[in-house]
Design brief:
Elements lengths: L2 E7 L6 H9 L6 E7 L6 H7 L6 E4 L5 H11 L4 E4 L5 E2 L4 H11 L4 E9 L5 E5 L7 H4 L10 E3 L1 H6 L10 H12 L4 E12 L3 H4 L1 H17 L8 H7 L1 H13 L11
Parallel strand pairs: 1-2, 1-4, 2-3, 6-9
Antiparallel strand pairs: 4-8, 5-9, 6-7, 6-8
Helix pairs in contact: 7-9, 9-10
Amino acid sequence: MLISIITIAYNNVSDIETTIKSVVGQTYNNIEYIIVDGGSTDGTLDIINNYKQHITKVISEPDNGIYDAINKGIKAATGEIVGMIHAGDRLYDHQIIQNVANHFENHDIHISYGHDVIVNRDDSPIRVVKSPEYNKAWLKMGWMPPHQSIYMKRSLFSKYGYYRTDIGGSGDYEFVIRYFFKHTLKIKRLDRYMLKFAFGGTSTSNYHRILKVQQVHANCWRLNGLTPPFYLIPIKLGRKIPQFIRAYFWRLNPQALAGNPGA
């Protein structure tokens, strides 16, 4: 089973190498690795070229934002399964893609998803996001699977569409509503921590921005002909609280990050 992994990057000279190493270091060998670069000028491409023997395809050209870049990568992919890991983030351990392959081979599913850990620059957990078993009702309760934990059959894109590029930074949330709620697909959780997500901190420091994003998220339901629950915004914000608490206890036990507690 060929699995395509897409990394999008733009002027990520300080952290692209960590991401690449997390992909090329996977124990699973049947990987098509695609990097979509937005025309970096800071040396990012030099680092990418250092690993060119491990990278299937590099696309380097200006794009119209993150979701346009993702769509380019998806359209360039040839694997049966497609997933992504953005520059600066990394797969949780060397077994992740093998776990994904086993999950699809052992279950008749269209989409897989898992957990993630949001870490700071010191690699200390800020939020630990543990996903429940799939049920459409969870989305009405403000749940969203970690975006980069999602792996899916490539054939779905031609039927249900690519990422929207006209709603700013909420294209991933609209995508999830469309695939996880609007349509009825075979979706199953992979009970693993899939990635470490690098967090810059702007989302926690600008509460006006957080509220605005949640309002756009509510509109993502309407874009799909759905009515968002009236309690969606407060309950989505509230779901972050246990993630911070879980991270606090992980910090008290540093060994928790050494393995994969989701296994």
